[in-house]
Amino acid sequence: MIWKWTLAGALFGALSALGTWLAEEERPSSSTDPAPVESVAAPNAPELSAPSEAPTGEGARTAPATERVAVDAAPAALDDFGLVAFGRVSATDDAGVPGARLAFEDDELYRHAVPSEAGGHWTSTALAPGTYALRVEAPGFLPVDERVTVAVGAPWRHDVVLERGLDLPVRVEDPDGEAIDLDYRSRGVGRDLEVVASLERPGPDAVLDSSWRFAEGRGQLTRRRNLADPAGLDARYQGRLALDAPPPVWATLVLHGRPLDSKPLDARATELVFVVDFAALAAQAGEVRARVVDAATGALREDVQLTRVPRNGPDWTGKPEVEGGVLVYRDVPPAEWCLAVNRGFTRVPAPPFRLGPGEVKDLGTVRIPVSKSFEVRLFGPDGEPRLEHLRAFAHDASALRFDEELAVRVRPKAGQPTTVSGVPAGPVAIVVGGRSSGVPLQGHLVDTSATDVVEVKLRGGTPVVLVRGDALPPRAWFVLENAAGVPLSSGRWLTRDVELAPERHQVRVYDGNVELLRKDFVVGDQRLVVRIGD
Q1: Considering Cα of 341, then 345, then 346, then 351, what sign does the dihedral take?
Q2: What is the C-alpha separation between 512 and 43, in angstroms, rounded?
Q3: Looking at domain 462-532, what is its CATH homologous superfamily?
Q4: pTM of the model
């Protein structure tokens, strides 16, 4: 619905000169000369509806905020259209809330995001008349979900009042009461500590995402050095925990992805204090043993690291000892790990494993296939050469569950060949496109056994909306594949808006290593909405 009105919305672009704020548009528009303004009263409060999923995925962008003079007046509208929408986001004390995000979604699942700017004011010229699901979010405030209707023939104003969430100062100390340094730049264990909030108390196997938040997390620690106003924080605290859900909730201290301590929080809480006994934690460290050899020569490989899963977690930084041809990693904290080479950036083709407190894990013999370097040449649909980021990985159709971290990522440089290294010779998947690339997400299967140069012709794409069903478990893992069975993406978060090449695709959904369901769909030349798990 939204795109049909973009051209008409262009007639009002210059309203920003009168103190309104032009929001980020899903589709381009231009501006004309400014028109007079007149005051319009706020509409009646809309009725509430169930919350909608927060916008994520391909193409999601945030427009830079531009501070301008606030004008509490309605922009003028063309007689035949009711396209100018504006309003204000404020707290319960009437203070304006800049930096809020208003996400409108129509019945066809088109989404339009608008930021609030100085004074909490927002403006859009891309909303067509109709009914929308609206979600308003801002850091430190509880989200609001509404159903709103944009009227025809007059400027539409909608004000939103947000309730502040619980915001607590956080202190982490040792058993003697000494504060633990939590700065990311420090070399101590404290840099790996996190504090997250969740609606339920997390168990020992709680699932965290790539940012170390629980999949169902409702708040995360902001450290002192990352706060906008650290002067407002008492010196005894190292950060703040801002919740986006009303209490009661649970606050949990996490080290290397493992919950250490959880505390219930209610509306009366004024601070959050955790005590960490590092001596007791050291006693829980375990040991990992593995004989890692080159698959071609049988020679022992000693250039193998232990890497956290997910990849951006803290790695084990020690050097393994060699005992009788076996690599021994000692003092390894309990967590989920994998073996990696290439300074930890290339995963060894062996399953990741979880190391329990004080456990000794023997991985047996792990063979690293012989890798081959090859050049990739990309060409657009018009036949012209293209420079695009790509991912390459050995294609194994029998793999239980694909993990995108097994891929080698390559960033091309102008004037230089795009060379892929660290991938075994044979069937190789080349995945191109995705977020912020301007190229549809697509995969190509090639064979590098008898060639040093691979040419790939990129295809055009069609917009696809992948909607996650509410019945799926929070720890669900998604794998998106094309017709050749090449995994295009994987992870705990289902990419919502994506462009895919016209062909058959499928989404596999897992809980751990158990496949829950498959959803097949065919992408043509028309925008497609696919619901998964309903």
Answers
A1: positive
A2: 48
A3: Immunoglobulins (2.60.40.10)
A4: 0.67
